[in-house]
Amino acid sequence: MSFYPTEQEKESIRVMIDGLIDLLRRELERRGVRFYKIVPGGSTAQGTFLHGDHDIDIFIVTSEPDRAIRVVRELFPRGVEKKGELEIWNTHVDDYNIDIVAVNPETVERWFTLKHTEIYSKMSNEQKRIAIALKALFKTWCAYGAENGGISGVAVEELVRRFTEPGDTVDRGIVKVCEQIVIHEEPFWLQDPAAERHGIPRNLLASVVEEKWSLLQKACIEYFNTRQIPYTPPGAEKYRFIRESEGWKTIQLESTGNKHLDFHKTRSICITYCNKLRNSEKDVQECICDSYSDGKKVIVAVKVPEQLPPYRTVCIEPWKIGREAVENFIEKHPDYYIDNYGRICTTVPRKITRPFEYIKQNIEKEWERYLKEKTRHS
């Protein structure tokens, strides 16, 4: 299958990793930065990366992470800092996307990612092929990547390690993992084995939002039916196609360049206005938000009615409220009537008759304001 890396590709990545480690070792020693070791991590180190995915993680294990990262910045001045708990510098060399991470060994939690390499490198070759195939399947459905609320690579690898056997075929392994995804209505607790060794609860499926979990389930069901993975790289337009084919409506926005920020911020704005819609038009049963960023553009997907009738029915249950409230309702709505359930009802004009247009306009307005504010402070 085309999503498996070629032997030449594996060798090229190995040469690049070795070269980076040698360069970092020489420069850190020359600058007098104390370090314990420099090791590769992630899917390229474990042998679970997809063809064409040239993401390399290098870990500098040092008691001086700030000094180490300063050296890295000087070596790769065109890179950018990744915000988070760790000291991470992201750069590009040729076709390789490289994260160089400075890890302080005195902080146990920060070793988790490095420990994952040790754990998942021990999987059998067939299990690694299962992991690659599952990543391809989930990427095809735009349900892969914690930055977009999808499943992470380490979560896929742990599902394979936990639910398959070393001798399983790729097909059997995919089925075993997919069965676990399909039988759970929502993301379940998948304990991080690296954290478990230190008695720390850490859920590897914590990043997966409900809407992406549903896409994972659909990907699995499709595989059950076809036993094929028609792999195509994910992207904003691919995501738009998937959602619109399901009947969702979509909104295109400009990206900040940060997928994680794009996803969480746009989804949060959408949810805010869905809540406002439901508070205004209480008979609206469904308003669901999801989002996807490829770093160039953002697609917000909304599942909501396009059009509502101009009037809606409002009823009160007189036996549940006081007499004064009932009299006020009747005075305000003299055209009231009693329905078959004994409720006092009337019809009132809606404030919002075009829910999607309401959501769309407000998301676009809020996002434009956010981008301007972000630019002003950058």
Question: Can you describe what's shown?
Answer:
This protein is α+β, with helices and mostly antiparallel strands and 378 residues long. The chain folds into 4 domains: 114 residues, Beta Polymerase, domain 2; 110 residues, Orthogonal Bundle (Poly(a)-polymerase, middle domain), CATH 1.10.1410.30; 96 residues, no CATH class; 39 residues, no CATH class. The protein is 47% helix and 17% strand. It contains 13 helices and 11 strands. A 5-stranded mixed beta sheet has the order 1-2-5-4-3, sandwiched between helices. A 3-stranded antiparallel beta sheet has the order 6-8-7, with helices on both faces. The protein has a 3-stranded antiparallel beta sheet with strand order 9-11-10, covered by helices on one side. β10 and β11 form a beta hairpin. The longest helix has 25 residues. The protein is elongated and about 85 Å long. The model has no long low-confidence stretch (mean pLDDT 93).
What's the topology here?
Layout: H1 7-31, E1 37-41, H2 42-46, E2 55-61, H3 65-75, E3 80-82, E4 87-93, E5 96-103, H4 112-120, H5 125-140, H6 153-163, H7 170-183, H8 193-196, H9 210-226, H10 236-245, E6 249-254, H11 259-280, E7 288-293, E8 297-303, E9 311-316, H12 323-332, E10 337-338, E11 344-349, H13 355-377
Parallel strand pairs: 2-5
Antiparallel strand pairs: 1-2, 3-4, 4-5, 6-8, 7-8, 9-11, 10-11
